[in-house]
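COURSE: Structural Biology Practicum
ASSIGNMENT: Worksheet 4, Part C
STUDENT ID: 0417
INSTRUCTIONS: Below are two proteins. For each, the amino acid sequence is given first, followed by its structure token string. Answer the questions at the end about the second protein only.

PROTEIN I
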Amino acid sequence: MRGVVLLSALLCATCHIALSASNDTARNGTVADGLLDNGNFEQAPNATNMKGTVVVGRYAIPGWVNEGFVEYIKYGQKQGDMLLVVPEGAYAVRLGNEASIKQKIKVIKGMYYSITFSAARTCAQEEQLNVTVAPDSGVLPIQTVYSSTGWDNYAWAFKAESGVVELIIHNPGVAEDPACGPLIDAVAIKALYPPRLTNNNIMKNAGFEEGAYIFPNTPWGVLIAPNIEDDHCPLPGWIVESLKAVKYIDSAHYFVPQGRRAVELVAGKESAIAQVARTIVGKTYRLSFSVGDANNSCVGSLVVEAFAGKGTLKVPYESKGTGGFKRAVLEFVAVSNRTRIMFLSTYYTMRSDDFSSLCGPVVDDVKLLSVRKP
């Protein structure tokens, strides 16, 4: 992994994101899970469509339509005293003031999809991105940098209202320098299949196995942004009910208590997930779940707070940062036919080997069942 200084505080690193057959279209003609057409921007504009780093012409970047001040950035390019790097391959794009990139995608009408992409700030100012697939639109704040790589992966979900949709990634910022905009790379899509309830668990997607696309060789997980509606969340069944994002992690790069996926609560009490479960008033329920660490040098006293109706539980976990977990149980009596189940982290924590990367406890394998009293 190569690292350089980004501004005065960020270290940037590169990580190869493997290309696979998922970049091909599916058998039914719709897009398959994986990178979009030229999703990593490795197919470059013609030299005649470039003026320095600025892209000239709306259709200059293969697979994309660009609007406004868009730059085509090569790995190692300098911006003042700062070196720019990209997370995959050699190229990325930078969106200036009010600039955007667009691509039409063949999908299945009525299905839910998640978009995953890499983004990095290039200036010290507050930055955000608008992501749109009409009629859905969302604003993803990127001023908080969660890792020292300088790059974070973000996920955003939508429901397809037609067989062909247009994805738009837009920088709404207004800065003195029009080049002061975010870098974008590695744009991928994944179909979401909202899980159903079973007789063994009242919770949906309780093991977090269904969720956003995670790039095969990206070691920093995917951020699920806050305040996204439940039915459009990249984590089906759940709501990111917090001011900051939660991190969606996989067993290929992290320790996961059960299965292949889990959630890391990376921003203290500002990082929370919730789900509303159907319950019967007066009945007793048992909520059980796993709390652990992701084997990412998140060392120290971690605490997960669980809420279920009027019931609360604090679960301490002394982490050595090398992976591990324990089970916890919260029993409560339902006072409503809808009970909100929520998890948050008590403390902000930084990785012991990297004091600029946020980390936190892992939550996984959530189970909710009614209890038969003798």
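PROTEIN II
(use this one for the questions)
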Amino acid sequence: MPLFDLAPEALETYLPQIDEPDDFDAFWSQTLGEARSVDLELRLEQVETGLALVHSYDVTFAGFGGHPIKAWLTRPADVTGPLPAVVQFLGYGGGRGLPVEHLAWANAGYVHLLMDTRGQGSRWGAGGHTGDPAGSGPAVPGYLTRGIGDPAEHYYRRVFTDAVRAVDAVRSLDDVDPTAVAVAGTSQGGGITLAVSGLVPGLRAVMPDVPFLCHYRRATEITGAMPYGEITQYLAVHRGEVERVFRTLSYLDGVSFARRADAPALFSVALMDTTCPPSTVYAAYNNYGARASDVVKDIEVYPFNQHEGGQAHQLTRQIGWLATLP
């Protein structure tokens, strides 16, 4: 796959105007206020994994609408807190799987919470365990067009709220330093990470890896790959709904969330990525922290990679980078 997007030097200065609604902040303030009016109902049950150096817990907490959201929490064994924490979000279609699959952050000394993504977990990996009780109108198979006619009904309004509540849950734990919570994720998980970065102040760090859910209009104009192709497919059938669809998505754009972020950030981008095109990633990166002052940020560039990005190379970079932060 050759380079197909903007030239690398153009990407570095790419600052598109996006269609951000005037009531963006009010919409999310009301959404999170409603979610936080419900008790977290946080439950942790230790599970036996046969691993001697970490302890793992089956976690349940109340997300959007009070719906039960599952997660795995893994922490170093026999280490007293308070510890720093990393909350991680998953890629499109995957579930939390098994706790033995997610050990890097705990072995680096962090409390690690991996949030299951509601309604997903059957496309790859070892499965998910969280349903999505909310329905939607007609949609293309996948998740991106569920509730596409109204931001209040959209699937990602629920997921982003779940993610904020996951951070709330981790910050409430006695053995976690609430001022030292970072968020991370790849692809869809990177897009969720960006949403949290703009909705939760005072994070220690933000690590979106080849993030999805950014600059939707640009994405649909330059790639036919799924999942952005779900929007194209929907609009090819619902021909008169273009502006309505993009209005809904304007409440869910990683670029808008990135502008509101205030924590240090380490992004990654792959320049041959047709799933999450480089210009959509740079639109979020170049706007990151625009409303704050002197936000530390960096981006790791993988020039010859597609959507796999840096994989373990990027995780190694993240572990080292996070350890350098004050």
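ANSWER KEY EXCERPT:
Q1: The CA atoms of residues 18 and 167 lie 28 Å apart.
Q2: The chain is about 30% helix and 20% strand.
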